[in-house]
Write a structure and sequence with these properties.
- By secondary structure, the protein is an alpha/beta fold.
- The protein has two domains: about 210 residues, DHBP synthase (Alpha-Beta Complex); about 90 residues, 3-Layer(aba) Sandwich (Rossmann fold), CATH 3.40.50.
- It is built from twelve helices and 16 strands.
- A hairpin with a 5-residue loop joins strand 10 and strand 11.
- Bound molecules: adenosine monophosphate and magnesium ion.
């Protein structure tokens, strides 16, 4: 199949709508990462997402909507608390999990009785969803287990020949996937993101739980799989121990492996004469750069040494992705 790449305009949105309503899948930008979308209500189309990505069928998708009213088409038992979250934090980089309506096909939710819903802030994403006129089921638009795509070029790298259309918009501002918040019982963060527990607690006026590893598999099936893995080996230091990182770098280089150190800008001074890839000056910038950095480094080097010791909640969300990207291979 030929994969078209089209800038977002009235004509390409029309084409995207046509494809979606014919049961095809389309990649589109959001502020977090690029998504691979299908009509939520079209089981056959949703199946194509799993096939194109090589995604395990027990890993549910997120239903994307352009307005709050559409949430009622997908979810029931929307509590007062859930409504507060919808009013105050959506649109944004937040996904809420609610009890699903029977109209949502089981393939979207991997047979769970809940549905994850997000209203993106990105005007490009909203234009696409609105043009289609149906809620859009979408996971990230990468091959399963690869770093999520934050540019249309990264989508093309993974899915060329497997999907008919990529809507080529801006590079993603946030760069890591949405915070997933379960609102079916006690509010619980299932996946950390750039919308923080602190922000959610401010809206709800109560503590939110953060998911313990013990129960993660049951409540958020997607969290169990290898994620965000570059195609070359990688290791992580979470203490910013520059001596330890330097030693590993030197060892790799003396074994003939071209290594790179991925860290915040301010640490680069400790690694003179070494290859460093900067994640920017702030932890928020690191969120924006992480996935594209992993994809760039795998093209140029043999081994990635990630070094990151976060101080902010946003930073811990980045660390969550880094830990998965190295397959828990800590230095
Ligand atoms: P992706 O957008 O590729 O990160 O995939 C969506 C993620 O959302 C999944 O991997 C799950 O972790 C989460 N998710 C989707 N639906 C549900 C649900 N009903 N309950 C809990 N988590 C969900
Ligand atoms: Mg994903």
């Amino acid at each position: 199949m030929e994969t078209k790449i089209e800038k977002i305009n009235a004509e390409s949105l029309n084409l995207a709508k046509k494809l979606i309503l014919e049961g095809e899948i389309v990649a589109f930008p959001t502020e977090t990462v690029y998504g691979l979308g299908a009509n939520v209500f079209d089981e056959k189309a949703v199946k194509k997402i799993f096939e194109a990505k090589g995604r395990p069928s027990d890993n549910p998708l997120i239903a994307h909507v352009a307005d709050a009213k559409t949430i009622e088409l997908l979810a029931c038992e929307i509590s007062k608390k859930a409504k507060k979250i919808i009013n105050k934090l959506m649109p944004g980089s937040l996904t809420i999990v609610l009890k699903k309506k029977t109209s949502v096909p089981d393939i979207v939710t991997a047979n769970l009785d809940t549905v994850a819903i997000r209203m993106p802030l990105s005007t490009e994403a909203r234009a696409f969803i609105s043009a289609c006129g149906v809620p859009i089921a979408a996971p990230s638009a990468n091959l399963s287990s690869r770093p999520s795509p934050t540019t249309y070029q990264a989508v093309f790298e993974d899915l060329n020949g497997k999907i008919p259309l990529i809507l080529a918009g801006h590079d993603c501002e946030v760069g890591i996937e949405s915070t997933v918040l379960d609102m079916t019982a006690e509010p619980t963060i299932l996946r950390p993101g750039i919308v923080t527990a602190e922000q959610i607690e401010k809206v709800l006026g109560e503590k939110v739980l953060t998911f313990s590893d013990k129960n993660r598999k049951v409540n958020s099936p997607g969290m169990r799989y290898r994620h965000y893995a570059p195609s070359i080996p990688a290791a992580l230091d979470t203490t910013c121990d520059v001596k330890k990182v330097s030693e590993l770098y030197d060892k790799l280089m003396s074994n003939g492996q071209k290594a790179v150190i991925l860290c915040l800008e301010q640490y680069s001074k400790f690694f003179e004469n070494k290859e460093v890839y900067s994640l920017g000056k702030t932890e928020k910038e690191a969120a924006n750069k992480l996935f594209s950095a992993l994809r760039e480094c795998e093209k140029k080097y043999d081994y990635i040494i990630e070094m990151f010791c976060p101080k902010t909640e946003e930073g811990f969300s980045v660390l969550n992705r880094m830990i998965k990207s190295v397959g828990e291979n800590f230095i």
